[in-house]
UniProtKB/TrEMBL annotation:
GO MF entry, a single one: DNA binding
Domain Transposase IS110-like N-terminal stretches: 22-163
Protein name (record): Transposase
Lineage start: Bacteria, Pseudomonadati, Acidobacteriota, Terriglobia, Terriglobales
Source organism of the structure: Edaphobacter aggregans
Segments crossing the lipid bilayer: none
Length: 367
């Protein structure tokens, strides 16, 4: 009976000559959608399984519509599928739609209706985002998988060191890459027996991480030769270059290179009102992993192994005049400059000059 009702409602939608607006609240197993006509009247409210087959069956039979959905786990493939079906898919930034996230009357039906009404009024109210292509997402998955292994290895290494210290002993001094059963040879027999399986897992994780590193090098060499432009900066390797390129995907999406720093959340927030202009923390919007990698690169630039450059000199000056928190602020500022500079090198293809003629402690001009 339910299938018959759904079919009849689909036929009603197909008879509509006016533009339809749809709000789609995505769930892990099932999703809820609400269809509005031009006057804002609800034409249809239904559940649909969150599977490609079910989405294609429902929205493939629907006339071209404007469909709004929130960012989430399923939003990349759902938005691509809806676009392939001929619909205008608008992906709302979930953090920006507080009318839904902070509502006291929150359920799937109301969320879908709210999305539909917001996108019907003005899509810009949803702060729409653009998902990357399926190819870029597949390549970025390699980087995500490597990052998960690195986090797992770090957790195991910290656990192994903590367990030995609580027993009054210590592992051999070595970094995470060199952590293997040999590092536990000097431990007592009972502790060595307890930690040996963990050490084997750490060694296996390090081997898998090395395999991922080789995959990234091959990927950069075969499909992303532009990564060499970004690697001109000391402290930026293949991992950071590829993560930056795959996260932004299209360098021409930004009118200015400095907009790339805003995209990764390294730009200070703003809450100006009247004569009040408080100093805010960085927004921390965008991809957190890319932001963490840029901060790591900034630490290298300002650290003891960083080479002399205008960027390093500029960051060191900030650190000297910033008090106790000067070094931290300098690191974030250098990471922000790196985000801008990497975009500029990517777009222009210029050769990076670490120290510009004339002794100016400034960065190359950006668009």
């Amino acid at each position: 009976m339910k299938k018959l009702t759904t079919t009849m409602m689909q036929q009603t939608l197909n008879k509509q000559d006016r533009c339809l607006t749809v709000g789609l609240d995505l769930g892990d197993r099932s999703s809820f959608y609400c269809v509005l006509d031009e006057a804002g009247n609800v034409l249809m409210e239904q559940k649909v399984s969150t599977t490609p087959k079910a989405i294609k069956e429902i929205f493939g039979a629907m006339p071209r519509s404007r469909i709004a959905l929130e960012t989430g786990t399923h939003s990349p493939w759902v938005s691509r599928l809806l676009s392939e079906l001929g619909h205008e898919a608008i992906v709302a930034h979930a953090r920006s739609v507080r009318l839904i996230g902070e509502s006291r009357r929150k359920d799937d039906r109301l969320d879908a209706m709210t999305l539909a009404r917001l996108v019907r009024i003005d899509p810009h109210l949803l702060c729409p985002v653009k998902h990357r292509s399926a190819e870029a997402q597949a390549d970025l998955t390699v980087i995500r998988a490597r990052a998960a292994l690195v986090r797992t290895r770090t957790m195991l290494v910290n656990a192994a060191r903590g367990l030995t210290k609580s027993y009054g002993e210590r592992l051999r001094g070595c970094n995470a890459r060199g952590m293997n059963p040999k590092a536990a040879q000097d431990l007592s027999p009972e502790l060595k027996y307890a930690l040996e399986p963990m050490m084997l897992e750490i060694e296996s994780a390090s081997e898998r991480i090395c395999e991922y590193d080789q995959m990234l090098e091959s990927m950069a060499r075969d499909r992303y030769p532009e990564a060499e432009l970004l690697k001109q900066i000391k402290g930026v390797g293949t991992l950071i270059a590829l993560t930056y390129m795959l996260t932004l995907e299209d360098p021409y999406r930004f009118r200015k290179s400095r907009d790339a720093a805003c995209y990764v959340g390294l730009q200070p927030g703003r809450r100006n009102s009247g004569q009040s202009e408080p100093q805010m923390h960085i927004s921390k919007e965008g991809d957190p992993y890319l932001r963490a990698l840029l901060v790591q690169a900034a630490h290298h630039v300002l650290g003891p192994w960083g080479v002399d450059s205008d960027l390093r000199r500029w960051g060191m000056k900030l650190a000297e005049h910033g008090g106790k928190r000067g070094k931290k602020r300098a690191v974030i500022a250098v990471a922000r400059k790196l985000a801008v500079l990497l975009h500029r090198l990517w777009v222009s293809g210029d050769v990076y000059v670490p120290i510009r003629p004339g002794g100016r402690d400034t960065l190359p001009a950006v668009a």
